Amino acid sequence: MARADGVVIASEHFWAFASRDGSVREGAMPAPPRALCGVPLVRGLVRLFSALSPLFRGAGVAGRAERVLLVALLLAPLSLLVLPQSASLPIGVGTAVVLLAWMLRGRTLFLHGAEHRAIAAAEERRLVATWDANARPSRFAPRCGTNFAALVVPVSVLFDRLWPLPAALYTPFAVTLLSLALTMELWQIVQTSRSRAARLFLLPGLGLQRLTTREPAQEETQLALTAVAAVLRRELD
Hints:
- With 237 residues, the chain is α+β, with helices and mostly antiparallel strands.
- It has helices spanning 34-37, 42-50, 53-56, 64-75, 88-103, 108-123, 127-131, 145-162, 171-192, 196-199, 203-212, 218-236, and strands at residues 2-3, 6-10, 14-19, 24-28.
- The chain is built from twelve helices and four strands, in the order E-E-E-E-H-H-H-H-H-H-H-H-H-H-H-H.
- Helix 2 (42-50) packs across helix 9 (171-192), helix 6 packs across helix 12 (218-236) and helix 8 packs across helix 11 (203-212).
- The longest helix has 22 residues, at 171-192.
């Protein structure tokens, strides 16, 4: 997770936030109930919301005002339960604009590229070479949230068109939630499949990463590597 002021790296068990001010904050990822982790659709939502947990820890990554903003954005679809259906488009557009402005502020795009490079360096076992600028792993990543976003948009549109029940107050919220759940199931299949056909689903997201990442400076790559090293240290202890 790239931010304007640093980079968050998370594994299944731990997260670390390396800030541009030189500090490193660390924490543990939540352990969701095992019973939920095996339930189709539910398991994807659990994993999706767990990934956001570093932002909502009291001593974590985001400040109080930022956490309030993020909660408001996440809960915005719930307002459609009491508002007319005609409000769904302006609420959706407004939420997307605010979210994009939050995601793309400051040096976020450059640190996003640094995040991908640092993770690739760990996977390719070239951490030291990358730190010393003797290696430059790709700044594009197949597991990036951008790829997930590129999948969720067409799934949401298709699901909205094929919704089998009569329109009701809860319909926009239900469509949004189920679209996220279905996309997470598809995402898991694509990520674990060795089929080249499955990898075609990643192409739109990889193309979109040309807009959501920039070539990072070496010190930005080192910042991301610092977060990676903090997570690896705890995982290997």
